[in-house]
Specification:
The structure is a homodimer.
Chain A (H helix, E strand, L loop, with lengths): L4 H4 L6 H6 L5 E2 L2 H6 L15 E4 L3 H14 L3 E4 L16 E4 L6 E5 L4 E4 L5 H9 L3 E2 L12 H7 L6 H4 L6 E7 L5 E5 L12 H4 L8 E8 L1 E2 L5 E7 L2 H12 L7 E6 H10 L10 E7 L5 H17 L4 E5 L2 H12 L1 H11 L2 E5 L2 E2 L5 H14 L4 E7 L4 E9 L3 H20 L15 H7 L2 H14 L15
Parallel strand pairs in A: 2-4, 3-4
Antiparallel strand pairs in A: 1-2, 5-6, 6-10, 7-11, 8-9, 8-10, 12-14, 12-15, 13-14, 13-18, 16-19, 17-19, 18-19
Helix pairs in contact in A: 9-11, 9-14, 10-13, 14-15
Organism (chains A, B): Brevibacterium daeguense
Pfam families (chains A, B): FAD-oxidase_C, FAD_binding_4
Protein name (chains A, B): FAD-linked oxidase C-terminal domain-containing protein
Amino acid sequence: MYPNLSEAATALDLAPLEAELSPGALVTEPDVVAAHSTDRALFCAVGTARGLVRAVTVEDVQATLRFAHEHRVPVVPQGARTGLSGAANAVDGALLLSVAKLDRVLEVDTVEMTCTVEPGILNQDLKDHLKSFRLAYPPDPGSVAISTIGGNVATNAGGLCCVKYGVTRDYVRSLTVVLADGRITTVGRPTAKGVAGFDLSQLFIGSEGSLGVIVGITLELVPELPEAITAIALFPDVVSASGAVTDFMATGARPSLLEFLDRQSLRMLNAYGDFGLPADSGAMLLAQSNGDGSPEAAVRELESFTEVARACGADEVMFSDDPNDSDLLIAARRAVSPAAEKYAMAHGGGELIDDVCVPRGRLREFFARVVEIGERHQDIVVSTAGHAGDGNMHPTVFFDASDPGSVARAQQVFDEIMAAGLELGGTITGEHGVGYLKREWLARELDPVSRELHMSVKRALDPHGILNPGKMLAAL
Amino acid sequence: MYPNLSEAATALDLAPLEAELSPGALVTEPDVVAAHSTDRALFCAVGTARGLVRAVTVEDVQATLRFAHEHRVPVVPQGARTGLSGAANAVDGALLLSVAKLDRVLEVDTVEMTCTVEPGILNQDLKDHLKSFRLAYPPDPGSVAISTIGGNVATNAGGLCCVKYGVTRDYVRSLTVVLADGRITTVGRPTAKGVAGFDLSQLFIGSEGSLGVIVGITLELVPELPEAITAIALFPDVVSASGAVTDFMATGARPSLLEFLDRQSLRMLNAYGDFGLPADSGAMLLAQSNGDGSPEAAVRELESFTEVARACGADEVMFSDDPNDSDLLIAARRAVSPAAEKYAMAHGGGELIDDVCVPRGRLREFFARVVEIGERHQDIVVSTAGHAGDGNMHPTVFFDASDPGSVARAQQVFDEIMAAGLELGGTITGEHGVGYLKREWLARELDPVSRELHMSVKRALDPHGILNPGKMLAAL
């Protein structure tokens, strides 16, 4: 579908674009452009962009897309570039289009319980802003402190809260979007309920910059979340721990958090900081309940968790209603990513993060497969942490990036884990997205008609294929 | 966009289609076809269909669409034909394609808390089936006892539960869909979280048969809902009652039900049956809370409701934790529709049901407008009931269907109410859909680019425009 866009546009004069943009919005200095050419994914291709537009107005976004559409220039939409799949990486000849500077809160409506924001606001900044209104925006990806709401919407970001509170999609009421040719529209619904036409906002959520550029977002909010109490359960191995997840969720439990850490994750965390974690354990579950505001219900829910965990072979289960303990444990969970980075740096630098989600009833089988795959590749270290309550696991493959053999074996392990996820009725990506990293795998997950349908929609919305080519849809 | 499909296909021989279908699936007897040519909307055009396919297999659906696609025959997908906007009405030369006989529950997964069903199962039958698993599927449109899950998905049906539990869309995990040309695919996600490609299931939800025919549905379920307690509040007028809704919801309340009945609705109900309703009152609010399983929290929430209602001018507020009282009140609320029909029959037969949804903060203004519109048209009676907690109101216009002047004035009132909804930042349809009834109004609600975008998507998925032409998209 995609012609060689970069060649066609090589000789392109950007002056007419610059004249339409806010002063200083267009940057072509190669070092600045290069510094904006990657997200946080490892081992993804990075092309050479021809320029960076730092939009300071919605009109800048429109002008950039009108120009790109007319001249068939690829456009890579960018927020904070914290993604883990290469979706924001430069492609050759592209204009990088950053909306990070569009970062205002435009409205908080305390009666309708919505807010309208620009895409560049950081998730945590929005959360902080909402506190004074006693409102909350639950989605909390690992990148909560550094990723933008626009990026969260574009990737349908998840996080720790999802097991009870759902994902980004569940909070989007409407979107203002600039289309591939620069036209602008608002899609979604204005009210709590609404069925006037298709809900086209849904198309853009999770589209990773391939269908349009999000410039305005109205989010549904909830009253501030009740305090939660915390339990941890230690298990001899990952299979028994994952079984406890399956069995606990099958009781109809709605914990506000249910996270999983394997032995290797615990070791990396203990090497990274003092979180009061056990020195050594086969696997740990971290559960929280807020009882929907009823402390008694929260206690009952975690008592049920305790019972299930023990029945599944937990060595130890501990409770706490001290918010400090909870904060420390959440901090530990959130430190898995930097702890893994530190570990990788000390062990050859290679790190590939899987993001498989399987039906909760298949978690035991999934972990048995991960263990088996790890045992077949003794020189490769695999650690697994994840959002157990959703069945969303992040097996992470560590390897020596300087050794081509190690790289190849790591890639094989990474792929085998995804294949196991698919075989168990799961998905290759629960929350990190497809991007560049999993574009071949998307073609494996989708059936042939779904692949065609994806491309029909893509052609309808982006007939010249300028939006983020070579990524999510490239192998369909 | 649409050629005159019926003319092109007038001489069409249906024998090759019949040969591909299950025995007896194709019916062409004019009286049978005519009996299947309308839904429950009033005053919508009804064309003459050339046949009715009662699919008993998914292959029947595929064969019908392959044939229709090849021969450019319009297809009108149908479930139980309980819609209120004419979306299931016949168009000239069409094949009516009913999936009502595809009504099995294929799977209930108690660990993943999902079920997979065929589209023709009735909503209430599914609810009953799930009881033995102690699971619930919350969406409960007024038509819960007679409408199909497939129809609920195709219209993104709402209901009484939405104020706390959301709409049909919120429960759809994946859909199996037959496309306009007969190809079949499954869209959506297999797991609690999933971001592999676009979530194309979202396109089909609420598309009213214009993009594909839904033949399989995987729904997310919740644990059986806790018992609720009930309060009713009586007000001197609709503006004070609607103000109480605004103010109560602004406290962050999450009632499991918050319904509104005006004086005329109460009168019609009292004439219809004995529900123990007040003999006369300006307006009544009906609130329920289940406290998310905590009886204390439920009581606290309804105490807060009482306080707000009194502050807004309620004459009387009554509580009950007797399930019989609750059942009777819910039965009363559900009887509004037949009670209105009975009233209409006795008063000239004309009835047009609006379905405006406004932001909750604009309810006072909306009701002031409805009152003002009613006062300007003294020969037209307007009653209003609705899902107040969502801002979703059903002003219903009664008129003498035999008097062209009355019909014209009723249409004007109906339109003025929709216009008021739009002016207040609302939508022309909160849950009933566009269909034939509001196709002109959809064009007014959507901005020009959104209209173009709708048509781009339509052309991409249904290039020959055979799916339910002349309805939702006809005026875009």
